[in-house]
Amino acid sequence: MDKVVGSAAEAVADARDGASFAVGGFGLSGVPNELIRALHAAGVSGLTVVSNNCGALDSGLAVLLAAGRISRVTGSYIGANKEFARQYLAGEIEVELIPQGTLAERLRAGGCGIPAFYTPAGVGTQVADGGLPWRYDGRGGVALASPPKEVREFDGTPYVLERGIRTDFALVRAAKGDRHGNLVFNKSSRNFNPLAAMAGRVTIAEVEELVEPGAIDPDEVHLPGIFVQRVLALTPEQAADKRIERRTVSAPGAADGTTQGKVSV
After folding, report:
1. 110 in Cβ contact with 148 (< 8 Å)
2. Are 64 and 39 in contact (CB under 8 A)?
3. Other Cβ atoms closer than 10 A to 227
4. What is the pTM of this model?
5. pLDDT in tens, 147-157
6. Were both Cys, which of 54, 64, 108, 242 would link to 69 (CB 3.0–4.6 Å)?
């Protein structure tokens, strides 16, 4: 039952070209950076990635993206990742953009063995009707567009059919984990990490704090170890390496109410 591996390289050693990965994280929160770096060092390419976003500030999945290792992304947010936008518009990468809540539920459904579900999100738009650009041709035209999806009415309300997501691997980061793979996530890092972990056939978790089995109260477990196959214990330095995408501080005088607003630096 001891799922701890000795290194990040060992954790991803069986990853191959063309593999699919569900990757946790929300912005820069809860991103499995060490596992992503190990995947980059392994040299694998042609990867299909399912993640809320594709990294930022040259960290997270942006490392693989910049190296040209990703061929397809399923996500809901491009954000300020200029390289992601450039590759998408240039036709270098295929991108399936879907509503954020739908992405979360598709991951959860896949992990629960649910092949598909109906949702009202996207009805009456190209999400349901088809035509969303999945790949551009590099000249402003669309080389590949999304197909139409089944729409069905329940009690007079239309719903679109969405498929559950399963991937070859999942990479996640937890605040705490034990040797059996039981995980605890911190705040917004809980948004997508548990769902990504559920969707992977082989799930690898890097943990900031490794504890012995029984040290985590069962009521505190966010993801049970049944979903996790490998656990990587981070060093204190790795665990403390957390970047801030946009630092915001109060303007001078804001504390006494004389100045309103905030300054981003």
Report:
1. no
2. yes
3. 20
4. 0.90
5. 999 999 999 99
6. 64
